[in-house]
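Researcher: I'm preparing a figure for a lab meeting and need a structural model of a single chain. I don't have an experimental structure, so a prediction will have to do for now. The sequence is pasted below. Please return the structure as tokens so I can convert it later.
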Amino acid sequence: MRILITGVAGFIGSTLALRLLERDDEVIGIDNMNDYYDVTLKEARLARFADHPRFTFKHADIVDREAMHAVFSDNGFDAVVNMAAQAGVRYSIENPSAYVDTNLVGFGNILEGCRHGTVEHLVYASSSSVYGANTHLPFTENDNVDHPVSMYAATKKSNELMAHAYAHLYRIPCTGLRFFTVYGPWGRPDMALFKFTKGILEDKAIPVFNHGKHVRDFTYIDDIVEGVVRVIDQPATPSESWTSNAPDPASSNAPYRIYNIGNNQPVELLRYIEALEDCLDKKANMQMLPMQDGDVPATCADIDRLNNSTGFRANTPIEEGIRRFVAWYRNYYGV
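Model: Understood. Here is the structure written out token by token.
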């Protein structure tokens, strides 16, 4: 297959590219290499496969309409995987315009590229954040997601709506994946595991919000990528059981699907920190803080739909996933 990955220098995008190249797909990757976090980490991710004969990198921003037109005009893609996004719930409160630009305008450019490029399947990153104020656990794809509590979540819900419109109007198979707290080697420095590891090793206090009373469906990166690959290989199709009298929000009479992709094994944040302490053989100095704006107390993914469709099920325990992350972190930073 010939596959375009946007955000290819990112955490999930780079790991996905490596996996697809290993199975002999051809990968064209684009990234704007912005400085939201350390650019050298992005460059190091790319260096793992930059010289691969079936990989081509294009330095481009999905917000740039002309650049995206050129990417789609110059290449025919069997599948497009949109991982490019402005990430982070908390940063969306500080800089909402970045989310409008990348997550809305940029995603619109991707949809237009797929429309005119006769792409056979668009897979795109949504987020567990879309569940917002919903407290019914586990989260299921047919839950109401009309009450986002951050701009980031609002843009991801918007992506799902935009994709459905294009699936309906132009019959582009579109599959959205609601990721649940992805962690592991080569992760983002703004995520909890990265911050906690750095703080503990440097004998600094680590911020623990909601006084540690968070529960998260932590999902290891290799499990996530396995699920994404399975979805790529199974383009969305119209649902024969869908009815406009009682519409299922996760499917359609258009070629459209929404899936949760998570571990389905929620873990208390304090247990997560305890597992990290065991791997580092060092205790954390925890600074207990109140809940942050835009955050939610608990997440848990019902993954029955994805399992029924693709056979996917995450199987990496947090103890093993954290151990692998710590080994990578120590090697990468020499600590």
